[in-house]
Write a structure and sequence with these properties.
The complex is a heterodimer of chains A (289) and B (318). Chain A contains eleven helices and no strands. The chains are: A mainly alpha (289), B mainly alpha (318). At the A-B interface, helix 3, helix 9 and helix 11 of A face helix 6, helix 12 and helix 14 of B.
Chain lengths: 289, 318
């Protein structure tokens, strides 16, 4: 019983870690640029498939290092050509554009790599369970969680202590003033977008090792990320972090007692949060880092 | 002023004449009546979305949920409860509208991009329910095993089941009632208040308009219209599809509204016509139709944000 409980909580935390990585990227872009990036799941898929393509040449570790930056570069190109013209306009337009982009990416990956799922092999020493009592904790899962923790910590340090991070935080509060202080807001937005897409690419590589690759995998992770942001609270990255873990664990636990409702529980959580605390768990006007 | 009015009257009668005669002019152009019926139903859906998007200015990206609820409500009603087509339509519409009203009360607590995100997320709930509860809804395969029934009146009946033209006129009748109601609401003081909220929410608030309540009412009304559209859609195919509940369907509706012209009353119908015909054509010539639809989204947003009618209107104004 305890073991089963532990199993489900661990599962929840691991899937929650994915939600967190996705949701943090989405949240960054949303906070600074007011863009709901529907193609975020698409970028995750791109990251995963790039890793799949280069793994035979550079190995898993190489792919883990190279694929996310490449994804971020692709994201940068997309931001500069397609999304930048829409900043002054109603958020509806960027939403629709990224929505169309998600279609193109999904169809494109299917066209290039085929509709069949692709496996990504992880190093053998990571694939083994740690112990027989806790068969569900494989080395890879631990590694995944560690990577997510590291990436999140790095992000928070970046936002807290670097000049870029300070500017991003300031821009979230008042972009106009930041611009008036002589900071190039266009570059700031581009870099911020690239950081968000980098996180998506990273989750793509990690997800590829755990779940294998499919062209549609991104869309499945998108909705929980939205919920994580809403539950966590407007403009709060810490909230997003909490929200992601919370819905992950909640859906893991529900899977134990009532598997059919493991998706639905997230929406219930969201409804409860909107009912009793509309601004979200840690929602405040500013971004708390 | 009166010249403007005669022009409007002329355009309006042209639209209705084209709709009334659609079964006769569609066929020679290579279309078929069922396609016209679909355009009408999806056009109504797009107009319902636009009721909120274009006239209240709040972005709902999850309206497929209420569309799908209408479809499932009608399908289930016909399958288990009633043999009366109009009755089942009312039930589908009520299901979509009432659920919309309940969720709307939660959704209006957020504004802006967060409003959109909450609508998307809540929209997905019903997709999962339809998907998981397969004993009732048929799961992934969709709901089958029902069909629209002939309309019975006291002295005669109209066979809308086998005669596609009769069915078209039945749908047109429902469409006309719904669109008429929409037009009346938009002309009413409430409708004016909606537009005031769209133009400047803060000013509207200072004028004493209860913003949250108005948005909630507009949301609920739009869900009722959406439910009706979904209910009719179930009758078109005698089938309810879980993908009709999915957020990608919501995206299609918003796209139809934007492509036709968000700030115009009839734009979404035009957008729906173009979208349906294009999708019909693309999926018959290429397997990569998804990319082309996606490309359409990108191109419309970048180069045609006012939509077809907005474009025409601007040209004639200039």
């Amino acid at each position: 019983m305890t073991q089963l409980l532990l199993f489900n909580v661990t599962n929840g935390l691991i899937i929650g870690a994915f939600y967190v990585l996705m949701a943090l990227g989405l949240s960054l872009i949303l906070n600074l640029s007011n863009v709901i990036n529907f193609a975020h799941g698409g970028f995750l898929v791109i990251g995963g498939y790039i890793a799949y393509t280069i793994t035979p040449y550079v190995g898993f570790w190489g792919a883990l290092l190279i694929a996310p930056p490449i994804t971020a570069l692709i994201g940068l190109a997309v931001e500069r050509t397609l999304i930048r013209p829409l900043y002054g306009r109603d958020p509806l337009y960027s939403l629709l554009l990224t929505f169309g982009l998600a279609f193109i990416i999904e169809d494109g990956t299917r066209f290039i790599w085929g509709a069949q799922g692709k496996p990504v092999t992880v190093p053998a020493f990571l694939a083994k369970p740690i112990s027989y009592d806790f068969f569900f904790i494989t080395g890879y899962r631990l590694f995944m969680v560690a990577t997510v923790v590291f990436a999140v910590a790095l992000l928070f340090v970046l936002l807290r202590y670097t000049r870029l991070g300070m500017r991003i935080r300031a821009g979230t509060l008042d972009l106009e003033t930041v611009s008036a202080l002589g900071i190039n807001v266009r570059i700031l937005r581009s870099l911020n977008f690239a950081v968000g897409i980098f996180l998506a690419g990273l989750s793509g590589v990690l997800a590829a090792g755990q779940l294998g690759l499919e062209p549609t995998m991104g869309t499945g992770l998108l909705m929980p990320s939205f919920i994580a942001i809403i539950v966590g609270g407007v403009g709060s990255l810490t909230g997003t972090l909490l929200g992601g873990l919370l819905i992950g664990v909640a859906s893991g636990l529900t899977a134990m007692y009532f598997p059919a409702a493991s998706e639905a529980i997230m929406y219930v959580l969201m409804a409860v949060v909107l009912l009793v605390r509309p601004r979200g768990l840690l929602g405040e006007e500013g971004m708390m880092t | 002023m009166s010249g403007e009015q005669t022009r409007k009257l002329f355009v309006l009668s042209a639209i209705w004449l084209a709709l009334l005669l659609a079964p006769y002019w569609m066929a020679p152009l290579g279309g078929y009546t069922a396609l016209a019926t679909r355009v009408l139903v999806l056009g109504l859906a797009a107009m319902s979305v636009n009721f909120l998007l274009g006239f209240t200015g709040v972005l709902s990206f999850g309206h497929a949920a209420y569309f799908g609820l209408g479809a499932y409500g009608t399908g289930l009603a016909l399958k288990f409860l009633t043999t009366s087509t109009p009755m089942s339509l009312v039930m589908g519409m009520l299901l979509g509208g009432v659920v919309g009203a309940l969720l709307g009360a939660l959704i209006v607590r957020r504004r802006g991009v967060y409003f959109a995100m909450v609508t998307i997320a809540f929209g997905q709930v019903f997709y999962y329910i339809a998907f998981q509860w397969s004993s009732l809804t048929g799961g992934d395969d969709g709901l089958r095993g029902f069909s629209r029934q002939p309309l019975h009146f006291r002295f005669f009946q109209i066979d809308i089941l086998s005669n596609t033209n009769y069915f078209y006129y039945f749908v047109l009748f429902c469409f006309a009632v719904a669109v008429g109601a929409m037009g009346l609401i938009l002309r009413s003081p409430f409708g004016r208040a909606m537009i005031a909220i769209r133009e400047n929410e803060r000013r509207a608030r200072f004028l004493g308009i209860p913003i949250e309540r108005h948005i909630w009412i507009a949301f609920t009304l739009s869900c009722f219209f959406m439910g009706l559209a979904g209910a009719l859609y179930a009758l078109v195919n005698n089938f309810a599809d879980p993908r009709g509940l999915h957020y990608s369907q919501s995206g299609d509706f918003v796209m139809m509204a934007v492509m036709g012209g968000m700030r115009t009353f009839w734009g979404p119908l035009l957008g729906a016509a173009v979208f349906v015909v294009l999708q019909d054509y693309l999926s018959s010539v290429t397997v990569n139709w998804m990319s082309f639809v996606g490309l359409l989204f990108v191109l419309v947003v970048l180069f045609f944000p006012r939509g077809l009618l907005g474009f025409v209107r601007r040209k004639s104004a200039a």
